[in-house]
């Protein structure tokens, strides 16, 4: 008998004629009230325990205009929760004897190249899924990398990507390596990643409202939102198809409840997509992340799942964040419990909700996690705003560029990040990346030869770029600081604790 069922059984024996209270009693009203506190337009929540769906419903609305209420079938982009689905699809091939976790990538993708030839020859499928290759992010939530490129074209650029840590010597989260894993899946099956995930995983599990492409969204899909300069606004969706194996699945509360049931039980309605040993391998730690400073527990990463601890309970968990949509999925095997939450803005409430549900189910001491995390978020945003203001104060007044603006115009190139064209239009400089008009920034003079670059999509906010002169005194390099993880996105993408400065060389 599992821990949860033991708990329930003991509560039923509290005394003659007494019935244990429902631990989730009043939860829905609490969620609605806290959604208002956090100013979240819409939420989708799924809670499963003991293979029974305890809650699958929506709260709030698809958008600020309240055109339609969120329900249990409303689609949300679940972003990096997709990683576990990519790993599961690969696990099905391992079960079938068509692949091994420790197969070398080059044996399936002979064209695969990283900047180190020896590492290229050693990387395995397991390395890709466990974030232990050492190659980090190419894009963050606000940056699309080569959006118009094919998957093959984008992957070909990886040979120029620098390592952030030595191979297999640490944890470096990498969407790009999951894209490689998706390419392995395609090479073995001869089918597109999207078709495999939809036909071999989502459909058999009965996840009929889920899909693996932006075009799969319909009129019952949550709209993304972001606070920009103090105002919550709807922001545009963007398509980054080449990166789909890392984060492209759209799903619903009803469908995520089915995904939870499958991962807790290893089957769903007698359907066994994976062997028990294979599911255990996917859920097992494959790479050490480090020590959680709050709980003093060890954090690790499996194959598409993070492993950690809440209170005394082991967790399988993952978060997912893309443009204006924020998701979370936690499994608590000891309680036979799973929780999924999606919100149509970036928010810490998802974590507060997951903790609150566990506290209630496990009959732990009551903590107001929503208030606590809300105050933490306000504090973090205030600190990020202060740091941003400190950068602004460092601006040097009264300076001017060393060249007439038209002198900066030209074509600049980087092996990994491709092309950057500086254009002049009506006396203003613009920066166009990847020869893609949708990836254009307006350059506003900051000081000396540094410019603040403002995206045409306001949700992407601003970044800094600057020019470096050559021996002849003319612009020789363009430097762009890409933000891969801001301190607080809704306070702006700078400052940040994870950036990459790319040096583009001017082409003659």
Task: Walk me through what this model shows.
This protein has 508 residues and is of the alpha+beta class. It has a domain at 405-506: Beta Barrel (Lipocalin). It is 28% helix and 26% strand. The protein has 14 helices and 20 strands. It has helices at residues 3-11, 27-38, 82-95, 105-108, 117-122, 125-129, 151-156, 175-189, 193-202, 244-247, 253-265, 276-283, 349-361, 369-393, and strands at 42-49, 52-60, 76-77, 225-228, 231-234, 250-251, 287-291, 298-301, 306-310, 313-322, 325-332, 337-343, 410-414, 418-425, 428-433, 440-447, 450-455, 462-469, 475-486, 496-506. The chain has an eight-stranded antiparallel sheet with strand order 2-1-12-11-10-9-8-7, sandwiched between helices. It has an eight-stranded antiparallel beta barrel with strand order 13-14-15-16-17-18-19-20. The protein has a two-stranded antiparallel sheet with strand order 3-6. The protein is globular, with a radius of gyration of 24 Å. Mean pLDDT is 92; it is low at 1-17.
CATH topology of the domain at 405-506: Lipocalin
Number of helices: 14
Just name the CATH architecture of the domain at 405-506. Answer: Beta Barrel
Category from helices, strands and their pairing: alpha+beta
Count of individual beta strands:
20
Helix content: 25-40%
Q: State the shape.
A: globular
Strand content: 25-35%
Low-confidence stretches: 1-17
Distance between the termini: 73 Å
Largest sheet: 8 strands, antiparallel
Give the spatial strand order of the biggest sheet: 2-1-12-11-10-9-8-7
Q: Radius of gyration, rounded? A: 24 Å
Query: Please, what is the average pLDDT?
Result: 92
CATH class assignment of the domain at 405-506: Mainly Beta
